[in-house]
């Protein structure tokens, strides 16, 4: 799971080390440490909608995960359309001549940055 945080002004997103999913307890422990360390006030999750914009099985799982995060951390959790972010992340990494081996490890982090950046930009235009 790619992780990213914003700067204090909510202008730029920076990627963090990718969370290697293990189980809910371990994953929530890592997320809790990240939330504390970076003083997270809101959570943005990529919502893997189908290309048609409809929800699918994965999107439903993310919705359930979002609810579990809300309950556990008592923070607002936003779902944000993540369609094509992995493809965009791959393109950006390829353009920056990141090796295939390093690219595989960086895609989730880059996608998280793109999702958070898009979310923050949408807020600034409201």
Give a brief rundown of this model.
With 126 residues, this protein is an alpha+beta fold. Helices cover 54% and strands 13% of the residues.
Fold blueprint:
Blueprint: E1 4-6, E2 13-15, H1 24-38, E3 43-47, H2 57-73, E4 77-81, H3 85-95, H4 100-124
CATH architecture: 2-Layer Sandwich
Query: What is the CATH fold-level name?
Result: Nucleotidyltransferase, domain 5
Tell me, rounded to a whole number, the average pLDDT.
89
State the secondary-structure class. Answer: alpha+beta
- Which series of helices and strands comes N to C? EEHEHEHH
Whole-number radius of gyration?
Answer: 14 Å
Overall body shape:
globular
Question: What does the main sheet amount to?
Answer: 2 strands, antiparallel
Strand content: 5-15%
CATH superfamily: YqgF/RNase H-like domain
Low-confidence stretches: none
Give a count of the beta strands, DSSP E runs of length 2 or more: 4
Strand order of the largest sheet: 1-2
State the helicity in percent bands: 40-55%
The CATH first-level class comes to Alpha Beta
Number of helices: 4
Distance between the terminal alpha carbons, to the nearest Å? 29 Å
- What count of structural domains? 1
Polypeptide structure, described:
This protein is an alpha+beta fold and 126 residues long. It has one domain: Nucleotidyltransferase, domain 5. It is built from four helices and four strands. The protein has helices at residues 24-38, 57-73, 85-95, 100-124, and strands spanning 4-6, 13-15, 43-47, 77-81. It has a two-stranded antiparallel sheet with strand order 1-2. A two-stranded parallel sheet has the order 3-4. α2 links the parallel β3 and β4. α3 (85-95) crosses α4 (100-124). The longest helix has 25 residues, at 100-124. It is globular and about 40 Å long. The model has no long low-confidence stretch (mean pLDDT 89).
């Amino acid at each position: 799971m790619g992780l990213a945080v914003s700067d204090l002004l909510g202008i730029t997103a920076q990627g963090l080390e990718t969370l290697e999913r293990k189980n809910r307890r371990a994953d929530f422990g890592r997320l809790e440490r990240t939330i504390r360390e970076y003083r997270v006030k809101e959570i943005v999750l990529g919502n893997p909608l189908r290309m048609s914009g409809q929800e699918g099985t994965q999107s439903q799982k993310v919705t359930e995960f979002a609810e579990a995060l809300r309950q556990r951390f008592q923070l607002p959790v936003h779902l944000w359309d993540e369609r094509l972010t992995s493809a965009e992340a791959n393109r950006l990494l390829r353009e920056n001549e990141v090796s295939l081996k390093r690219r595989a490890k960086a895609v989730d982090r880059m996608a998280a940055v793109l999702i958070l950046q898009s979310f923050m930009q949408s807020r600034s235009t409201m």
